[in-house]
Amino acid sequence: MSSKLKSGYQFQRNKVTKIKFNKLRLKSFLMITLGVFIPVMDLLFYGSYKPIPEEEISVVKLSDILEGENYEDVRYSQNGGQFYKEGSSFLVPRQFELRQSAEIAQDPLYKPSIWAERYEVRTESIANAFVSTFVKERQYHGVYERKSNQNLDELWTIEQDDFTSFIARDGKDVYVVDYWGIEPIDTLLQYSVDF
After folding, report:
1. How far is 62 from 77, CA to CA, in rounded Å?
2. Whole-number Å distance between alpha carbons of 108 and 51
3. Predicted confidence (pLDDT) at residue 10 exceeds the cutoff of 90
4. Model pTM?
5. Strand ranges (DSSP E) for 5-160?
6. Which of 53, 50, 59, 48 is nearest to 179 (CA)?
7. pLDDT score of 41
8. Rounded CA gap, 34 and 16, in Å?
């Protein structure tokens, strides 16, 4: 190389060498593969969004609460934000998620909504870890307060004027419910958790 410099040889800058070309091909292949692979894996492992079924499901539906509390003439929203999802993973063989809202004919200003999740975890120690992680990660709603409940192993709640949230554990089952409405926590627990 020093002899080339001494003779005045000019190197070709920005020349695509075989190594650079192979690196570029590998990067392109990885980007295309991941771009296709991740959405397919998400669909396979985490399930797909479905319309909310009429029959009984593994999480509480807004209709369970409102009909149980004798509301009449309830119209459930049909927009894109309403869904039911089932999924699974190695540590959580069964998991369920629901988003639903409604309008009450007697009180057009009252529009309750629910976000409900249920995780059937493999072991109680993993369920304990799930609960503590949820309590730490979901502080954007406010500070969860630990409550005692004779039917549950753990119960953490936030109760505000028109918002109630709880994280509960019953053995290996973890329940996470956010409810925008006026029903009290005991009513939500009654319909949400299998005692």
Report:
1. 11
2. 24
3. no
4. 0.72
5. 49-50, 74-76, 83-87, 94-104, 113-120, 145-147, 154-159
6. 59
7. 60
8. 25
